Amino acid sequence: MPTYAYELEEAVNDGYLVPSVNIEVPGKFQREGIKYDELSDEEKEEWEAIDWDEEGNVPEKVEPAALNRWLFNEDTVDKVLENLMINGLKVAGGDRLGKTIIFAKNHDHALFIQERFDIQYPKLKGQFARVIDHYATYVESLIDDFSTTEKAPHIAVSVDMLDTGIDIPEIVNLVFFKAMRSKTKFLQMIGRGTRLRPDLFGPGQDKECFYIFDYCQNFEFFNQNKLGSEAATQPSLSKQLFIKRLELLSSVRTAESASEGLTQLGQEIAEHLQTEVAAMNVDNFVVRPHRQAVEKYRDEQAWEDLGSTDYAEVAHILAGLPTELEPEDETAKRFDLLILKIQLAIIQASADYIRLHDQVKEIARRLEDKQTIPMVYAQIELIEDLQQEHYWQDITLPMLENVRRRLRDLVKFMDKKQRKIIYTDFEDELSEPREVNLNGSVSATSSTQYKKKMMSFLIAHEDHIVLHKLKHNVPITPTDIEELKRLLFETGDVGTPEDFERVYGKQEHLGLFIRSLVGLDREAAKKAFSNYLTEHRFNSTQIQFINLIIDYLSQNGVIEPSKLYEPPYTDFNTSGLDGVFQDKDADQILGILKSIRQDAAA
């Protein structure tokens, strides 16, 4: 298999993966919610008889987001399963549904799906469809059986366990029974069905495609928002953990005085991150475009030699990529994140510390109520100590790491604060299944070729008046922008404006974007700071900070002010620009950067 970066579409075209058939099945309740006024008289009576809450309130509508979170409707699930059993791809001469993953919203939803399947298909009860998630017993055995062609289960109802890291070529049906807004997660889930499988349907009848049944408008969402741009959503829990560990590693290694315990903590964090990167499979089409960085940082020595500028590269490229590590319980990971945030709050002297330490005390209080569980009772002394304020006086990062290790596997025993679950059986309406295209996906190979062509074109025309202005920080005008468009698109050498937008996205400020490709002439960058540098005397740290800005400008053309408060600039001081310079000097630097930006943004 080629080692250069390319995405799913290119891998399919090259015959290394199989394509999906995308089937949208819009449901009335999933799209509009359940409205009392639209129910039949009999259903209205059922609605009124429901014990909705302790106050006896009866809602007029249940929003779509509540479905499969705390309200589970029998008819909706029954119709989803019926459509799957009728229209899903079959094996064994067409007599049996092929291996299928149903992606459920949560554990309760998964259990409800399995329960409804067993009721609707009693002859297949107990084996054919099984819940595979962190709550399942003998989960490894279940996954092994699911991975075996002739063994049950043939339907895996999954909650965040089979999304990534599971390579089962026999999978031919995916059911999206939850909404997703993360492009990375969406592609990872699609990837579960892409593996080749010779002779799956009989001798010489290879797997040529797989079906995706979407009941939650995921195709609609990503067609509107395009796969090329991540929706503005909360980063995944795994990505947050990776970034926070990286941030803590940077802070620990640059601490003015590091105890033996702090040094050991830094070593353990580095080992954890290295292990995570080493578990990133470069044959995974989500990981493959970042192969070079993955191979660099899977080496233990790379983490020993991690330079100040490397942290930003690691965070930007590697955070959030899927790994093949064994999936962990979500509650344990959330506790890890909480402890990481407290450790960072301590080392950065952040006001967030009070709020975060109160959260840990509340967790300890709730765990104390579960001391009848042997695992919890074994840690009861620590649990009681955490509730006392004197324990938190002079607490250290290694002490918090000890708390994390001892309690992370216990938090799952806490009683969850959740709304009462309600089960209904109102008649839902599913539209006829229809095949849809998934727009906005650009293969990385064709994208890379276009970008290479663009860079070659820009280099060949670097003496053009507008490109020369952009490169040398000479202010451009609206007329220059029109000339730039003519240069780029009327020659035909780099395609049409549509080709440009498909690869780079919509660029409101063309001059700024082209500057980001060609960079800023180093002497021009130095000149922008020359007056400021000659009028002031700086220490070595401040000079290094400004030189780092100049290095960045020469490569990237412009710099967002927010980057000056992130690694590698926070390697000089955790407060970034404001920690290295006085307010007046910091304002002048930001003013210079603003001027550089404005010169390219006609």
Shape, please? globular
CATH topology of the largest domain: Rossmann fold
Q: What's the total count of β strands?
A: 13
Query: What would CATH call the class of the largest domain?
Result: Alpha Beta
Q: Considering DSSP H and I runs of 4 or more, what fraction of the residues is helical?
A: 40-55%
Instruction: Estimate the strand proportion.
Output: 5-15%
| CA-atom Rg in angstroms | 28 Å
Which strands sit side by side, in order, in the main sheet? 8-9-7-10-11-1-13
- What's the architecture of the largest domain in CATH terms? 3-Layer(aba) Sandwich
What's the CATH H-level superfamily name of the largest domain? P-loop containing nucleotide triphosphate hydrolases
C-alpha termini separation? 45 Å
Low-confidence stretches at least 5 residues in length (pLDDT < 50)?
1-6, 228-232, 440-446
Helix count from the secondary structure assignment = 28
The main sheet comes to: 7 strands, mixed
User: How many structural domains?
Assistant: 4
Overall pLDDT, averaged?
Answer: 87
